[in-house]
Amino acid sequence: MSTAAFLLVLASAFCHATWNVLTKRSAYKAAFLWTSILVALVLFLGPSLFYALRDGIPARGWLFGGGTVLLHGLYGLSLARGYQVGDLSTVYPMSRGMGPMLVPILAVLILGETMSAPAAVGVALVVIGIYTLHAEALVPAAILRPLRLWERVDSRWAALTGVLIASYSLWDKAALDYLSPVLVNQFGAVGFALFLAPSALRDGGLPARAEWQERRRSVVAAGVLSPLSYVLVLVALTTSRISYVAPVREVGIVLGVAMGVVLLGEPHGVSRIVGSLLVAAGVVVLALAP
Fold it and tell me: Mind listing the pLDDT tens digit for each residue in 250-259?
């Protein structure tokens, strides 16, 4: 992975962790996500039209764009549902952790990519680190607890969210052959807006109005950071393998843990520190991998 791609993905991780913290602070999660994505749609409308008019959108571009709308829309629904029934500390690590576990495997099987031995070690360290972050303590009972999370509703939604993350990552990587990163992101934002609208506009639009009135600055900030985080990843994907980019992006979990502890006052323990170190080590190995 090149230094430029590495820095782009790290910046993306910071943006991603920040808008998730802002979402956690909101009262109506689906409405907050919906209003923030409307901000993103408006902000990126000009650049999207520029690229669409300059490069055009071929038939296959529209096909891939439609798939992006569907996958990102389902992802938005799954993410909102997961946050509705579960905690951020459960849903976020599991959903983000599924990506680096599935993407490299699927990238090799579907896209025909290859992975060097050092990169495989880096991926393994990131996955193990994310798993450790999810354990509440470094004792046998806590370490084994994540294996029993399948019995919980929030964990099943988190797992589904992770599968959708892996799916849209692979799909959008292929879409970059026909669409610019900005257009791919805009298609995804359209999917988010369409699929979350019923929840945000229920009861006469009360949830959306409440979020805009109470957290307008946070909505705007999330509306900027959310698409920016993904555009940075898409740009990195134009020069790097998805099996390298996707795991590095998960350093956002480490940043999210730090923000949760410092900004939200969430509890932390040795397991989170160890997990963060493992993820950081995996990121370094991936950055140095050929």
Answer: 777 778 777 8
Q: Return d(Cα 58, Cα 47) in angstroms, integer.
A: 18
Supply 136's token pair.
């509440």
Distance, C-alpha 60 to centroid of its chain: 25
Q: How many domains does the chain have?
A: 1
Between CA 26 and CA 204 the distance in angstroms is 19
The amino acid occupying position 36 is: S
285, 128 Cβ separation under 8 angstroms = no
pLDDT, tens digit, 9 for 90 and up, residues 162-178: 889 888 988 998 999 99
Nearest to 276 by CA among 289, 288, 259: 259
**Cα–Cα nearest to 93, from 232, 271, 288, 245:** 271
Enumerate residues 6+ apart whose C-beta is below 8 A from 165.
75, 95, 96, 98, 99
Distance separating alpha carbons of residues 84 and 243, to the nearest angstrom? 31
Range of the domain at 231: 3-288
Residue 230 has pLDDT above 90, yes or no: no
**What is the rounded CA–CA span in Å between residue 57 and residue 36?**
26
The whole model's pTM is what?
0.81
Q: Which DSSP string corresponds to 51-109? A: HHHHH---HHHHHHHHHHHHHHHHHHHHHHHHHHHS-HHHHHHHHHHHHHHHHHHHHHH
